[in-house]
Amino acid sequence: MLPARHAAPLQKGLLLALLLSLAACGGGGGGDSSSPADPGTTVPTPTPPSGLTPPSEADAQRFLSQATFGPTQANIDSLRTVGFKPWLASQFQAKGNLYSTGYSDAIHKAGLKDFCKQFSGFPNDYARNNCWREYYSAEPLSREFYRNALYGPDQLRQRAALALSQLFVVSNAEVEGTYGLREYQQMLADKAFGNFRDLLKSVTLSPVMGTYLNLVNNSKADPNENFARELLQLFSIGPCQLNADGTLPGGQCVATYDNNGVRDVAFALTGWTYPAGGVSPWGSSGWKNPTYLRGQMLAVAAEHDQTERKLPGGGTLAASRTPEQALDAVIDALYQHPNLPPFIGKQLIQHLVTSNPSPAYVARVSQAFVSGKAYDFGSGVRGDMQALFAAILLDPEARGDNKNSDPNYGRLREPAQYIAGMLRALNASSDGANFYWWWGNELGQIVFNANSVFNFYPPDYPLPGTDVVGPAFAIENANSTLARLNLATAMLYWGGLQAEDDRPGATGTQINGSNWLALADNPTLLVDSLDKVLVTGGLPANIKTGIVDAVGVWNEKNHGATWREERARSAVYLVLASPEYQVQR
Amino acid sequence: MNRRDLLKALMGGSALGTFGGLQALMSIPAHAAGDPSYKALVCVQLFGGNDSANMIVPTDSRYSAYQSVRGVLALPKASLVPIGAQYGLHPALAALEPLWSRGDLGVVSNVGPLVRPTTRADLVSKTARLPDNLFSHSDQQNLWQSGGSSVLGRTGWGGRLAEALGPDPVFAFGNSGRLGIGSARSTLALPGPGSDFAPAGLASNWGGHPARKAMLQTLASTPRSNKLMNAFAGIQNTALSRSASLAPLLKVSPSNNPSEILNGPFQNLSGALDSDIARQLYQVAKMIANRQSVGGNRQVFVVAQDGYDTHENQLTRQGDLFAELGPALAAFQAAMVLLGMEDSVTTATLSDFGRTFKPNSSGGADHGWGNHQLVIGGAVQGGKLHGSFPELALGGPDDFGVNSWEYQGRWIPTQSVDQYIATLARWMGLSDAQVLSLLPNLGNFTVRNLGFV
C-alpha cells in the first residue's frame, strides 16, 4: 500500500517534457557506492477487520497528510481498504534502520589532530575531498532522511521521528560527527513507539546530546547548568504550570520550578563521561574519556555530587548515591510530573495535526499518556507512545472529511514536509541531496541542523493580527515563501535538481509526472485529481475555477507539442502554491 | 562633516551611486547634507545571552575582583582595549574603540527585564515581583522583544513602535523572533546580498504563463476565513509585491556591483567582514541609502548573530563572535558617516541575558540576568557608561543569589529593558504618553528616559 523503496519504472512515452532528465531513472533509493548499505525497513501487512466501515476518501487523505510525508492516490485507496487502526498497528510494528549502519567513527578513533588531512583510510577520492561533509556533517543523514520520506514504508515512524527530533533537538551546528548524529536520529526512530520514560532517559544518556548541551564531563564542582535547564524547560515539563488540557491555570504563567531547581538537577546529573572507544590525539585528561559518540555515556561515581538535592515536582534525592540512581530519580520525577502529558502531548499534536488544538483534545491526549491506553492501542503503562500517537491521530478533532468550518484549524506544512510531500506527489526519483545546505537554508529548515536547542521555530509563535499560534510561521517569510515556489519551479520546469558531478552514485532529483500528464486533456479532471490527493479540506470553488481556467489557457492549437505538459505544470504549480495546500488542515 | 570628508578621501572620494539606474539620483552630494527628516533604529540581537562581563571589563581597582572571580574566563588586563580610564573593551571589539573616542559609542550598563525597580533586599525578604521565567532563553528573548514582564505577550515593541511611527513594517535581515510583530503588522524578513528574492520562471509572456502568474497573485490576495491560510496568503502577497520593488536593491553585492559605494566601508565583505552579521548590516545600509524608494521616514531594522550561549569554551567562542561583530558594527557606522546619515541612525544591542559572573566547570558561564548593551550613532551620548556598574562580588548587593550555593553573579538589573526601549523610542519620535502606551510597565519606573540618546 505504500510506495516501493525505488521509484516505479518510468513508463516510456508518457513523460515527455515533464521529465527532462531521464538519465538517472530509478535512482531513488540506493546505488550509491560510496554510501553505507541502504537501510532496510519492513512493515507487516495490515489485516483489515471484517465488517469495517471504510474511511471516506477525504478523511483517508487527511489522515495520510498527518501520519505520512504525503498521500498518493494509491496510498489513499489502500488505506481505505485497510482502515485506520490496522494501518496504525502495522506502522507501530515497522522494524529496521531508517539510517544506514556503516558510518565510520574514525574521526574519533584514529587519534589524529587533523583527521581530514591525515587520515589514510578514505575509501575513495570523493570521501577524502569531502571529508567534512561525509564524516562530520549531518548532510549524509539528510540525504537518507529525504529518501526514506519519499520511499520508506515506515512512514508514521518517520513523521514521529521528525517531530521528536524537533522536541529533543541536537544540531550539527554544534555537534560534529556523522556517525554519532546517525545514532541519535536512529535512536529517536527506534524508540518513537516505545515508552516515553525510556526515550527521555536515552536522550539524556546520548553522548551526542551530552556534547550538545554539555552534560558530558560535567563534574560536581560548579556544574554546567545547560542540560539540566533544557531538560526541564524543553524536554519534559516546561517552565509554566499546565492544566491537564494544556491551558495555564488562571491564564498566567506560574513557574514550574525556580533557578535553584535547575541547579539541583544540574548537580544530580553530574559524573557522566563519553562511552569507551574514542582515542584522543592529545592524550588522557583524567576521568574524562575522549570524545566518542556511539553508545551511552558512562557514569563516573567519583565525579558525582553527593549532596542531598530536591527533585522536580517535590521529593528528595538522598545524599549518598550513584550517578545512575540519581539519573533514574530525576527521570522518574519528570515522568510522573503532571505537566509532562499536556506539555509533550500538545506539541506532538501541533507537529502532526493542528497548531491550535482545543483544550479538550489536549486533555484526551494527556489522558492517553497517563493511562497508556487509547483506541485499543498501548500497554496500559504511563507514557506509552503508541497510545499517545493513536490518541493524537484517531481523535475526533483529527478525523473527519474536512475542518473548513473551524477558522483556527490546521498547521503550516513545515519545509521538510513540503519538500517530501511535493516529491511524493510527483513520483520523483531522488538521491535526497541538495535539501540540506541549499534548499533547506532557503526554506528555513535544515534537518538535524537547527540554530539552537529551541528548534527551527517555537511552539507558541503568534500569528500577527490573530489570536492563534502558527509554529512554522516563525520561519515563513517573504524570502522563504518564494523559495517554496521556486523549488516547485525547479522540479517542474528546470528538470529537477542536477546530480552532483563528483559524488559516486549521485542522481539528483527528477520528477515523473506521468499520472498527472495523463489527465491533461481535461483541466477540470486534472485539477480535481490534484485537489483530491493533495489538498486537505479541498480547494474552494472560486480558487479551483481560477486554477482550471489558468490551466486551460494552454491548448493544442496555439502552444505546440508540449501543451499537455504545460497544462500539467501549471496545474501542479498552482495547487502547490495555494495556501489551501500549504496549510495542512 | 570632517569625518565624512575624511572617509570620502579614504575611499577615493568618488560619488558613485548605490545601485543601477538610481545612481544619478542617489549620489553622494544629496546625502551629504544629511536627512533630518529621517530616523532609523537598528536592533542587533545577540542570541544566546552575551557574556557582557567580558565585553566591558573594569580596568581600575575593580580589575582584581574581576580577575579573582572570573578565574579561567578572566581576560588579561593588558589585552583589554582601553575606553576611558575605567573600562576596557574585549580585544576582539577593538574596531569599536574609535567610536568611543569620537563619542559615537555608549555603554548602557546592567539592563534586563524588570517588573519594577528591584533590589537584593526585595529578594531576601521575598517581596520581589519578578518577570516570568528568568534565565530561560526563549522567555527572556520574548521579554526583550515584547517589553514588560509577561512571557504571554504576542507582539513585539519593534512592531508596535513601527505602527506608531508610520507605514513601514519592521525590516529583518536576521531572526527577529517576535520583535517586529505589531498588533496587525508582520515583520518583513529579507534576504542577504546577492539573493534573487524573486519568484522564478514567471516572466514569460508566452502561452499560459501570464495566466499562471495572474492566478498566483489571486491565490495570494484572496482573503480566507482560516487564519493560518490567510496568514500564509498574506506572506505570499507581501513577497510578490515587495520582491518586485526591493529585489534589485537587495541583490546588490560587492561581486555583482563593484561600484557600490558601501563596498568601501564594508571592505567588499571580505576578510574580517566576511560574516553573516556584516552581510546583514550591509543590507541595512543599502536600505537606508535608498530610503526614498524603500518606504517612510521612520524605520526599524533587525539584524542578529547566533551563538552566544557559551556554556563551555567561552573564551574562544565569544572571541570568534566578537571578531565578526566588532568590525561589522564599525563598518556600518562608517557607512552611515559616508552617507551623512550618522545622526539619523542609532544602533542598539539586545541579548537574552548576561551570564553568571562565576564560571562553571566547563570553561563557560551559565544564564544570568542583567547585561550591558552597546549603543552606537551620532545621536548617542557616547564615550560614557550610562547607569551603575554592578559590584563584582558574589553574594554582593547586585547578586540575584540569596543562598550561598546560589552566589553565581547573576546581576539584578539596575535599568529595565522597558527604560532602555523607551529611551530609543523617544529618540525615534514618540511622546512620553506614546511611550507609556508602547510599554505599559514603564509606569513602574520614575525615570522614563535614560538619556543615552
From TrEMBL, chain A:
Residues 33-44 have a biased composition (Low complexity). Residues 1-26 form the signal peptide. The keyword Signal applies. The keyword tRNA-binding does not apply. Residues 29-57 are annotated as: Disordered. Coiled coil: none annotated. InterPro entries: DUF1800 (IPR014917). Pfam families: DUF1800. It comes from the Bacteria. Keywords: Signal. This is Uncharacterized conserved protein, DUF1800 family. It comes from Chitinimonas taiwanensis DSM 18899.
TrEMBL record, chain B:
InterPro entries: DUF1501 (IPR010869), TAT_signal (IPR006311). Keywords: Signal. Pfam families: DUF1501 (PF07394). The keyword Signal applies. Residues 1-32 form the signal peptide. The keyword Signal applies. This is Uncharacterized conserved protein, DUF1501 family.
